[in-house]
Amino acid sequence: MLQDSYGGRGILTWGLAPVSHPDSTPMRELYHQLNCTLGTVSMASNSSFFCPLTLRGGLGRRPSAPSAFPYLNYDPSLWYHSSSVLALALDALTLPYRLHRDSVPMWQMADSLAVSGRKVVAAYGAVPLPMMQGSSLPDALTACTEALPWKPLSACPEPDNGRLYGQWATLKGYEGQRLTRSEFSY
């Protein structure tokens, strides 16, 4: 119905899945997996893009461990903890087209992320980004020698080969920090 009423507009869909279900049995887990699969196919076919958000580590039968954020104290099995992290992520993900000034049209965001007919996209986040007061963003990213600080927030993370089809980044709460280095070192 949305496609009929708003043809040519971007329809962005964000699906949410809990980390665990209370009183779960193997049969209920199978039903949850089937519902997630059918929902993903339906949402992807009726949207410009679909981003399934969860901290579960995947929607398969044996998902990996839930996303762990080293600077955040939360229990991913508690729905109010995981939903607050996903709400923060959803706020940051939708910010580019919700700004009052210098906003990006929703269709432009959808077109840049859903390239070559791709419908299902992944989201990553660093909650919080490890950036010290007075430092710059390049310095904070350079300090991450072992691995980048963002963790998957989607049920379908990108392959580990490092290829990206499209990317958007949102930084919030960095009024006093510099996003570029003030001096160059060669």
TrEMBL record:
The keyword Cytoplasm applies. Keywords: Cytoplasm. GO terms for biological process: mitochondrion organization. The keyword Cytoplasm applies. It is found in: Cytoplasm. It comes from the Eukaryota. One of its GO terms (cellular component) is mitochondrion. InterPro entries: DML1/Misato, Tubulin/FtsZ_GTPase_sf. Coiled coil: none annotated. Its main location: cytoplasm. This is Protein misato homolog 1-like. The gene is LOC104963739.
